[in-house]
């Protein structure tokens, strides 16, 4: 027990697979960090007698959830998340496929729910949709990485974990609030797909017209919904991605500036330098001199 946090580390029995589950619990908040590979056909069966919100982010692997109250099994794959209400009345079955599972699973029990006045999430008017999974957003991925790499202890660890759990819940509920009919949900998925395309292709100059064609969405709808969802235009969002990547490369590598320019989508190093200076108020060379990492 460390400043109210009960920390447990479990090693998976070799009969069931291999790996480690690290668990943190305090004030009705349970956070499990699962890094394991379970054998084919392995499953958990649980039954609780309390309300809980369960928020899971699957960074790697695949799992299947079966509730008697669900019409269909809930299949969660790599880089997806889900939020569901466990009312304690039904047995829950979770299948883990024979794949490496890397998961952050957060359970918020009654005391935590009451502390943050979240009982309305269980009301008939605001009941959660249990039949939906969502692709990870960049903000969610960032928070999960912070949880996995955090090394604080004591009170700082406790405050950190609680704040990050609430941040993830806020992002998930924000996604739910934007979901309406099937058409709106389909548009939302396409906008998130565009974000993923931008993140994995910062070395390319992709026009809005090309992005719209890739996801089969009207250009104006794409521009409006992207701005609504991320608070930035596609152009500004892409520039931020490129500049952040450039700063990381300048700080942590010795790659020449012309090569960094090419990596972040500028074929002309002069254009890259001008864009970087406008964004950071300093040149790439000066930035590297002031912020480069010395091993």
Low-confidence segments: none
Can you list the strand order of the major beta sheet?
1-2-3-10-5-8-11
Largest sheet: 7 strands, antiparallel
Any idea what the shape is?
Answer: globular
Helix coverage percent of residues?
40-55%
Q: Beta fraction of the residues?
A: 25-35%
Helix- and strand-based class?
alpha+beta
What is the gyration radius calculated from CA atoms?
A: 22 Å
SSE order: EEEEEEEEEEHEHHHHHHHHH
Instruction: Give the helix tally.
Output: 10
Q: Let me know the average pLDDT.
A: 85
Number of strands: 11
Name its key features.
single chain, alpha+beta, seven-stranded antiparallel beta sheet, four-stranded antiparallel beta sheet, about 45% helix
Q: What does the model show?
A:
By secondary structure, this protein is of the alpha+beta class. It has 10 helices and 11 strands. The chain has a 7-stranded antiparallel β-sheet with strand order 1-2-3-10-5-8-11. The chain has a 4-stranded antiparallel β-sheet with strand order 4-9-6-7, with no helix packed on it. A hairpin with a 2-residue loop joins strand 2 (17-26) and strand 3. Helix 2 runs antiparallel to helix 3, helix 4 crosses helix 5 and helix 4 crosses helix 6 (219-230). The mean pLDDT is 85.
């Amino acid at each position: 027990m460390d400043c109210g946090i009960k920390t447990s580390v479990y090693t998976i029995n070799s009969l069931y697979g291999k790996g480690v589950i690290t668990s943190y619990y305090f004030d009705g908040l349970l956070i499990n960090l699962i890094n394991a590979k379970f054998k084919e056909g392995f499953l958990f069966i649980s039954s609780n007698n309390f309300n809980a919100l369960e928020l899971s982010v699957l960074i790697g692997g695949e799992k299947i959830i079966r509730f008697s109250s669900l019409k269909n099994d809930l299949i969660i794959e790599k880089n997806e998340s889900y939020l569901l209400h466990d009312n304690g009345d039904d047995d829950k079955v979770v299948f883990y496929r024979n794949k490496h599972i890397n998961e952050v699973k957060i359970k918020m029990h009654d005391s935590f729910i009451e502390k943050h006045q979240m009982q309305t999430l269980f009301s008939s008017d605001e009941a959660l949709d249990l039949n939906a999974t969502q692709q990870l957003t960049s903000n969610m991925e960032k928070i999960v990485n912070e949880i996995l790499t955090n090394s604080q202890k004591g009170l700082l660890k406790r405050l950190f974990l609680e704040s990050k759990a609430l941040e993830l819940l806020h992002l998930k509920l924000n996604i739910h609030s934007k979901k309406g009919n099937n058409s709106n949900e389909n548009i939302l998925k396409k906008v998130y797909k565009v974000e993923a395309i931008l993140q994995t292709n910062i070395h390319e100059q992709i026009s809005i017209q090309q992005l719209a064609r890739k996801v089969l969405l009207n250009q104006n709808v794409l521009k409006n919904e992207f701005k609504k969802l991320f608070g930035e235009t596609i152009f500004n969002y892409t520039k931020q991605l490129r500049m952040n990547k450039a700063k990381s490369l300048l700080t942590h590598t010795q790659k020449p500036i012309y090569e960094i320019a090419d990596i972040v989508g500028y074929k002309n190093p002069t254009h890259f330098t001008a864009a970087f200076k406008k964004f950071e108020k300093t040149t790439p060379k000066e930035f590297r001199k002031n912020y480069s990492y010395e091993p």
